[in-house]
Each structure stands twice: as structure tokens, then as C-alpha cells.
Amino acid sequence: MNASTKSHSFDLATASVRELNAALHALKDGTNASLWQVANPRGLHAIAAGLDAPVTVEVDGPVGYYCGGMNKQATIIVRGAAGVGVAENMMSGRVEVAGDVSQAAGATAHGGALIIGGDAGARCGISMKGVDIVVKGSVGHMSAFMAQAGTLTVFGDAGEALGDSIYEARLYVRGGVKSLGADCVEKEMRDEHRQELYERFKLAGVEGELDPSDFKRYGSARTLYHFHVDNASAY
Amino acid sequence: MNEHVKAPAAPRTLPRESATFDAYTLSEIRRAAATGIYDIRGAGAKRKLPHFDDLLFLGASMSRYPLEGYRERCGTDVVLGTRFAKKPIELKIPITIAGMSFGSLSGPAKEALGRGASAMGTSTTTGDGGMTQEERGHSTKLVYQYLPSRYGMNPDDIRKADAIEVVVGQGAKPGGGGMLLGQKISPRVAKMRTLPEGIDQRSACRHPDWTGPDDLEIKIEELREITDWEKPIYVKVGAARPYYDTALSVKAGADVVVVDGMQGGTAATQEVFIENVGIPTLAAVRQAVKALQDLGMHRKVQLIVSGGIRNGADVAKALALGADAVAIGTAALVALGDNDPKWEAEYQALGTTAGAYDDWHEGRDPAGITTQDAELMKRLDPEIAGRRLANYLSVMTLEAQTIARACGKSHVHNLEPEDLVALTIEAAAMANVPLAGTTWIPGQSGGF
């Protein structure tokens, strides 16, 4: 840590999430209060939601729903598991979860990076709009449903209906895919995709440990982009 | 009989059209047979429904005395969001502008709505597709809709908003999502929604990261945390099970509940959905009010009613039944210039007529309101249209005050169900007021 940075400790056994978030929301760009350590999260909801400053928040334990929701700029590190909607609608910054995460991780997120150390539940990356999600484990069913933009990289397996009704997001999966959703197809891995995947490995700090050629790429067949009666059986 | 004299022709009946297979039904069968696809259109239910027209005010008489129409004050202000929000919204009139998206409407149309509403001290509402500068810049009070698609959703806009409306459903299509056809996905609309230009854009029917009232409670907690508990949070539901939906919205932590009846408009949905799913506004109001009363939350959690509100009488009736405010959408568009007979030749060219045009999703609106076409858009001057909306809102307010004074009320919120009777048994049952000339409330009191 830079000598000029200031570290804060926050114990959620004695203070409320409201007090924590109010303190974090009061931070401005250029703050030197750049490291916040949060103890005893105990699955509480909306921890570090709505941040908009280049700070690092380290949470020591499991968090509930919507941790890091709508994050901008901040780096949020969770040393535990996370509940529903971690980093939902994130705009920028980074959210990193050491353990497993529940449903709808990174839902509708527009930007930033979401790194998941364990598995993700159903609908990981649902309606994602530009975020880069890396899941070191596997993802549940309906992941990347209606995914619009960004990348979802899965080191393990994907559940049923991956990428259902997908738009322009790019999906990379190393393991098996139980089934593809409507309008989602396997696509050719070209050099640009291998390069992109390598960048995602770097984002997750595992470059050199994995081989991009072990992954398959999935994306939109773009056959449902215009509603047509001939596609009725796909709906 | 002389064989040369012709027998008179036997009398014949007139051609008889079927009430079941009427002309519209037949045209729809032929349309479906020719195309193989259901009909999509804008607006709300067009069928004849029990509505506020079926209620009458009793006015003052021997037992009540009225207020002087031009001298005694009759308040119209309303405060929304008093339950939890640090900064409730204070409106001068109890008529708000309902959520309508940039995308379905043009930028100038959104600006006009903002200008008109602001001139009258009331709020406008965003829609699917995010917040535009036209809208924020011209709306002194802006409600930001939080929709399943989350198109254009970002925390900066949430913080710029004066309130947040979590949309669970809308009256035209409870349980339905939407689709904006490619013709309206202009480069600007596409960018705001993070989609390729020109494709048909689907709007989800369920929120991506919560399911049910228990989750919604946590979602609302998150939204409050993100906005530091400043903004009122509304929950909007399509009228289907208004008693339970209102109760569950209260349980989930709403400051304001918005109940939208089936006459409430949509930008684009299947005709069969609009006309056959959901219940009329009239049937929803008392159910929603009863839920609030049963929970001891009436007037603590505010109720906004929408769907087919057209004039000050409708406003007064909704308030008398227990609503705190109403919202208008279709009527506001008409005030701007939608379906104006001056464009009749162009409506005819589109195969319709002024007053019936509802193919808003096709983006060819002669009035330049429901379009993204640069040339058509120019037809709407936002300043003039905004002035027209302000005039209309002013008339509605004056009308509601006129009725309230006649009933002896010094504030429109003092109107009450006891001021009303119903013209039909259906309306009496739905509104829980007596059939006119009787003391009979169907389902509640014994006899006449």
C-alpha cells in the first residue's frame, strides 16, 4: 500500500450497513482513504452498494444479496461466498469473490470485472451489458440469458440453456455445456478470440495457467433478431 | 288465381350480422389467416368496460354544504413518499405523467411532457430505455423507472432522479414484457440500450435479479442504500390482484404503490393480451385501498391510480375512492397532439383514422410523437405541445376542484366514497358504493 493511503476498519457486528455505505458514498475521487476492511459481514445485504470512488473494500466473510451493486470505480474483494446479484448493474471497477456466488451474478452489469473464485448459480451474467465476468468454477442454468454485451468466461461447466436469446455478448467455456439456449451457437475460435481470452486470464490473475485453445466460444446465431412467425417454435 | 298475375315476393329478413362474429372479429380472423401472426398494437384496452363514467357524485344538499366555487380554497397538493424517503416528492396537483420510454416516444415528445408537467408542478416518469437529457432537463420532478430490461440503467441517473419506480407490471399487460420493433431502434436508441441498431428489442417480463416479494424487499433495501435513503421508491403493478399486490408492495417496503388498470396504455403488445388480461381500473382502486387500510397504511403509503383517466371527474372519482394521485399516459399524448384529426389524410394512408391510430410500434406516427423518424419528429414543437399539456392538466385540476367544492371539500383528498353512487350494479360492486337511488352495495349490504 502506498504510504499516503489511509486504512479504515469497519465491524458490521457493531455498526450497520447503512453507516458503512454512507461513509463509502461520502468518498470523492482522489480520496486517500483508499483501503477499507470490513469484518463480520454475516450475509448482510447491499454491502458496498453504489460506490463511486477508486477505493478498495475488503470484506472478510460471506455477503448477502447485491454486494457491490451498481459499483463504479471501486475494487471490492469478498473473502467468502456471495448471495444473489453480486455486482448487479456494475458500471466499472472490480468485484472479486473468493467463494461461490448465488443466482444472477453480474446481472445487467455494463462494465468492470467480476471475478468469481468458485461456482456461480443460475442466470450468471443475465442481461449483461458490457461487463467481463470470469468464473473459475462452473455456472448454473440460463447463464448469459439475453446477454447483450461483454464476456462470460467459465473455467468449468455450464448448465442448461446457456446464452438463451443472447445478443452480442461472447461466451467462453472450457468444460461441458449441458445445453445451449435459443439462438445460441458454438462459434469459431479465431486468434482475436484467443487473445481476448488471454486478456481475461490476466484479469483473473491466471495467465500462463490455462490454455485458450481448451475453450470453446459461444454467441448469437442472430436468427431471432427480428420477430418472425417462422421462428415461433423458438419462443 | 290468374296464372298471369305474379305472386308477391315473400317478405325477407334484413341481413343480420352476428354479435359474436362482428365486423371487427371477422377482420381479425382474416388478418390472422393471411399473416400467421398475432396483431401487435399500442394503447390500452379498447373494449367497453365498467369505468368511472359509471359513477356519479351526489354533491352537497341539506345535510352537507358546498364551498363557493370561485372564492373558497380547495387544495390539490400531494406529497408522495412520506414513509421512508428523506426527500418525498411534493406535487402541486394530484395528476402525474405515467412512465413512457424514450424509444417508444421521440425526444421532443419527452421534452414536451417535461415542460407541461413542470409548468403545473407535477412529475413525469421515464420508461424502458433510460433517462434522456431532454427529459431530465425539462422535468422539475422526474421519476426513474427501474424495469426488468435495465436498458440504460445506471447509478448516476438514479441519483439524478427524484424518485424510483420499480416496475413489476403495467395494466395493458400484467405478466408481459415488450418488444420495440427494429424500425424504432435508431442509433441513439440502440446506444442507450446497448443493442445493435435496427433489431427488434425484447423487454423482459421478469426482473433479472429478484423474484417475489421477499426478494423485492431486499432489492428495495439496495436501491435505498445506493441513494442514501433519499428517494421515494414506488412499486408499479398492473391491475390483476390489486389487494394482494398492494399488500405485498407495502410489505416489500414501498413508499408509493402505483396500480395501473387495463385501460392503461402500452407502446406495443399483442392485442389479445391488452384486451384479455388484467382488470379495469375501476375494479382495482377499492381493492388496493382496502389493502392499505387493512394494514393501517392508507395515506402513509401513497396510492397512484392510472388507466383511462381522461378528465377532472375521473381524477375526483379516483381520489374519492381512496387514491392519493392519478397518472395519465394516453391522455397526455392526446394533449400533445396524438391522433389529431388534422393528420387525417395521413392516418387514412396508414389504413386507419384519427382517434383509432394505435400502431405506435411502427414508428410512422403522423403526429411525430411515437416515432424516431427525424422528419416526423420535427412536427412536434415541444414548447407548444408542452403548453397544451399544461393547459390540459390545468383543466383537469379545475374540474376536480369544481366537483370537490360541490361536495363541500376544502381539499380534493377529502373526497370520499360516501360522495359517490353507481349507475350500474357492476360499478356499484367494483367501487363498493351504492347503486344510485338505493342503499345497496352488491356483496355488502342486504337489500334495497
Structure notes:
The complex is a heterodimer of chains A (235) and B (448). By secondary structure, chain A is mainly beta. In chain A, 9% of the residues lie in helices and 23% in strands. In chain A, strand 1, helix 1 and strand 2 form a beta-alpha-beta unit. An eleven-stranded mixed beta sheet of chain A has the order 1-2-3-4-5-6-7-8-9-11-10, with helices on one face. The mean pLDDT of chain A is 94. Chain B has 448 residues and is of the alpha/beta class. Chain B has one domain: TIM Barrel. Helix content of chain B is 33%, strand content 13%. An eight-stranded parallel beta sheet of chain B has the order 5-15-14-12-11-8-7-6. In chain B, strands 1-13 form a two-stranded antiparallel sheet. Chain B has a two-stranded antiparallel ribbon with strand order 2-16. In chain B, helix 2 runs parallel beside helix 14. The longest helix of chain B has 25 residues. The model of chain B has no long low-confidence stretch (mean pLDDT 94). The chains are: A mainly beta (235), B alpha/beta (448). At the A-B interface, helix 1 of A face helix 6 of B.
Summarize the structure.
Chain A has 235 residues and is mainly beta. Chain A has helices at 17-25, 191-203, and strands at residues 7-11, 35-39, 56-60, 75-78, 94-97, 113-116, 129-135, 149-154, 170-173, 184-187, 216-220.
